[in-house]
Structures are given as structure tokens and as C-alpha cells.
Amino acid sequence: MTKGSLKIAVVAGEVSGDMLGGDLVAALRSAYPGDIEIMGVGGPALEGQGLKSLFDFSELSIMGISQVLKRLPLLLRRIRQTADAIVAAQPDVLVIIDSPDFTHRVAKRVRKARPDLPVVNYVCPSVWAWKEQRAPRMRGYVDRVLALLPFEPDVMQRLGGPVTTYVGHRLVSDADIGRIRAARLVRPDTPPGERRCLLLPGSRSTEITRLLPIFGETARILAERNPGIGFLLPTVPRQEALVRRLTADWPVRPVITVTPEEKWQAFIEADAAIAASGTVILELALARVPVLSTYRFDWLANFFVGRLKIWTAAIPNMIADYGVVPEFLNEQVRPGTLARGFERLAADTTERRAMLEGYDLVLERMQTVRPPGETGAAVILDLLAEKKPGQF
Q1: Half-sphere exposure (CA, 13 Å, Cβ side) for 282?
Q2: Cβ neighbours of residue 123 under 8 Å, at least 6 residues apart?
Q3: Neighbours of 84 (CB within 10 A)
Q4: Which of the four pLDDT bands, split at 50, 70 and 90, describes residue 389?
Q5: Which family does it belong to (predicted)?
Q6: pLDDT higher at 70 or 315
Q7: How far apart, in Å, are the Cα atoms of 361 and each of 273, 317, 367, 377?
Q8: DSSP track, 344-359
Q9: Counting beta carbons within 10 angstroms of the beta carbon of residue 257, is it exposed (0 to 12), middle (13 to 18) or buried (19 or more)?
């Protein structure tokens, strides 16, 4: 490190993590007076901040125990490659972002070789869901945790984990979600014959193949019970062919779109949604789109369901601390149930009004004084000043 410069190693393994990383580095550039150099693993957002990724970060976009086991040799090789490159680069700080199956293993290897290197974990691992013993173990290789959800600092403190700061979630201040929320607040009720159902089966092929056939039967039931209903199905470009193939024989063909702009427009037009459990449920909540949350575990993950500690998998429910969003898992994901649930949420019912009231509470509890990137940057710079006094 030359005087006045800061070298950051960053490792992000998902699109959402890459976006968080890009925002964090941009905030660091604004807060730090010297030059900043970054290296590690990431995607377009971090590359926009000057990163030359060690490899294509989409290799790490896997979900489910069976998928992890299938790609284990590649993951192990990438873990070694990433850790070795970080040690050789001699950065001032390591920031690992989400994807704990990969990033935490990298951090452990780096900590063994560089015990003096500060490590920051952006996105608190779901220790509140299962494997609570991970929290105290993290103190061996993580110095600070930046949390996206307001309840996580208390959980980490109770479990004996690293010092954790709630920085906030980027979705709270997302311009598109704010625009959609404003539009939906003044949106008139839709006549029954013109209602639109938003279908979101996930972005991974495994999620899509497990859920979309059930969504198709749900669409058939809804079309029979609600003549004139339409279906909106945003997806991502890499899954478009799969989605079109799986919906080719639906009696009412959905409008399939692939661009972010079209996705947000579907959020505005929809009366309610049926979606795969995940971050999109929080997007829908902040945008005030009523939703039914669904998920079907892969065959191997079913063996571990009993070890889950949480009472809900829907983030809005965790934040509100009660069941704002109805959830359907595994064999509960039944077309007839989903169809009738959608009908209740699409009309002006007590269920819909209660859900929207819950959404407002979620937004209130997630508010922060300043943007997540700025708070995260301040935590990192304070940590560097503590670990390396006189240098920063």
C-alpha cells in the first residue's frame, strides 16, 4: 500500500451482492480522500467501480444443497484461487458479500494466512434461521457484520457473533420501487374482468421447473373462475426459453417479459402476485403489491427442513414480527389454494387491507437516517482506523 491509497478485496457471488458491493465501493470513494483500488470477484456493478473479476461470478449462483454438492469441486477450486489471490494482493481490508457457502470459506483461508487483515461481512448470514452456532464461530474470521434487516444486530449479539451494524436495505431507497409504491397508492380498483395476476417463479432453473407447472394449473383455475383475467410473467433473459417452453400449453398464455423496465411495469399493473419465496417478496412488499409466497425444496433439502429455527421464510413477516404475507411450502403449494388466495388479495377485502397495513409497518421499520452504502463505508473506515491507527 502506498501512502494515501486504500486497497479493498471484495468477494460477491450473486447479482444482489454485486449490486451491494458496487454501491458500497462508490460510497467509500466519496468518503475516503485518497485513491481506492479494488480486486476480487464480482459482476457488472463492481466492474463499474474498477474491479477485474478473477472469474465469472455467475459460476457461484447456485441454490439448494444438491446443487452445491454437484458443483463442489469447482467451488473448492474457486475458493482456493480467490483466497490465494487476495493474500498475494495484500489488501487493507476484505469485504465478503452474501453467498456464505463461498465467501466465508474464502475469509477463513485468508484469515489463516493474514490474521491481521480486517474482514467485513456485508449481509448477515441467516444464523436466525438455522445453525445458530455459526454466529460465535464467525468471530474467528469476521470483524464486523453489515446487516440488511433491522432485527439482525440483536440476534447476533444474543448469539455471541461479531459486532453487527444495521445499515439498511438498498430496496428501501430504490427509485423504481419508490415510483411503483407512489403509483399504487393512487391506483384505482380494477374491475373483476380486467384483473392481472403477477407470476414470479424465481430466477433459477430449479425454482422455475418446480413452481411453474403449479402456477400454470393455478392460472387455468383462475381463468375459469375469472373470465378476462390476464397473467404477467417477468423473467430474466437467461431463463426466457425455459419459461416459454413451460408455458406453451397454458390455456391463457402469460405476457412474458425480460427487461427490468417491463418487470416494474408489471408490478404497477398487477392486482396481486404469486411468487417464489426470496428477496422478491420484500420488493413486492415495499412496492405495495399483495402476494402469496411459495417455495418447494429440492429433494435433499427436505431432509434438513426440521433443523430450521425460524417461524417464517418471508422477510416482511420477520420484520413485522407477524404473518403479513401468507406462505405455502412443498405440498401446501396447491393450485386451488393459490387461486382462491389470489382472488382475496386482488379485490378490496379485509385480507388485502391487512396486508397493505403490514407493508406500511415493514417500510417504517426499515427506514434509516442515511443510505446503506454510506453507513457501510463509515463502518469500514472506522474499523481500519481502529486496526491500523495512523494509516487511515
Answers
A1: 21
A2: 17, 20, 97, 98, 146, 147, 148
A3: 15
A4: confident
A5: Belongs to the LpxB family.
A6: 315
A7: 20, 10, 10, 27
A8: HHHSS-HHHHHHHHHH
A9: middle
